Predict the structure.
Amino acid sequence: MNLRDPDSMNVVIGKVLRYGVLLSGVIILLGTIGMAAGNGFSDTSAALTYSDTVPHDSLDVSPAALLHGLVTFSAFSWIELGVIVLIATPVARVMISVLLFAAERDKLYVLITAVVLTLLLFSMLVTPFIPGFHA
Amino acid sequence: MFIIEFVVLMFLISVFAGVFGSIVGLGGGIVVVPVLTVLMGVDIHFAIGASIVAIIGTSSGAASTYVRDKVTNLRVGMFLELASASGAITGAAIAAYTNSAALAVIFGSILLVSLVPMLMKIGVDVPQSPELEGPSKRLGLTGSYTEPDGRVVRYNATRPAEGLAGTAVAGVLSGLLGIGGGAFKVISMDLAMKLPMKVSTTTSNFMIGVTAAASAGIYFARGDVVPIIVAPVALGILIGAAIGARLLLRSRNTTVRKVFAVVLAIAAAEMILSALGVAP
């Protein structure tokens, strides 16, 4: 594929989005099947959907907990992984846009997309740790 | 309610949310949040966590089709993302220090007011396209797409600075409330930049995934993204978005505008009522 052809951008970005969505959908589906087949529909998970029984910050979302859940085939952790892939898809799209505009030698849009990527990563990774920020 | 019923019901409702969200360019959040809180009795934090996932799913799920078929204008989308992303960070900062309920009433009222010019254009298929000049030309804010009847629609964007300002408001709103950004994005592209309605809603749809991802980190870190809630929502939304994208491509601009106007009125009312404490 000739990346300097302006139409190639639509093709590549379309594929990045499609594959990201498919991958995340398959992982979440497998997790959901696992949840239905295993003990996922147990009392704990039931309680999670009701505010009066469980406070909203009771879920362990640390990377270590996620990794442990993945290797022990916890359905919840696999669903979480699928959601992370889903969230990462638009981020990947912005990253690849920077490269595609560079291939087109479009300096203005390399700059624009690089600034967007910086703002996005700052917002995703830095603002959660600024005290008082609650989005 | 049994959990299995919850999962099946949320899946079906999310399919519906994905269809509408992908057509009007607002994401599925405006359907998912009230259903989860009012009908299902789910905590608002979990509902907003699910809404973020729903918006990203609608966005990426439908955009893969819209981008391939070139209805979405990539340059317009990426240019306006400058404003939506900086607006979202500003909104998060404002939310940390002010009363967001009062602001929600103001923003909701602006949305209601913007219904008027929207309705005045209700029968317009493709707006009279201006000359490509000035900053729009330097930014390459032009494009074309093919209607289902084979007609090629060529258009140029106008007033990019106003579009950028409107989109910044959209970003602030997303950062502030976690919802509502898409409406201002569509309005900015439609009223300020004079893009065809389908280009406006699909370009908004393309952008909302990035805006939602920007605030996803915080919801995820707080544990608001609960697997048993988001799994059926994500699966339903992805299927709904795929259906919605096909429907939009076959629809007329005038139809999309009518659907958008109705959804906009509901979204604005929802925002104001929930801020006033009448609805969640």
About this structure: Residues 28 and 54 of chain B are 5 Å apart (CA to CA). DSSP finds eleven helices and two strands in chain B.
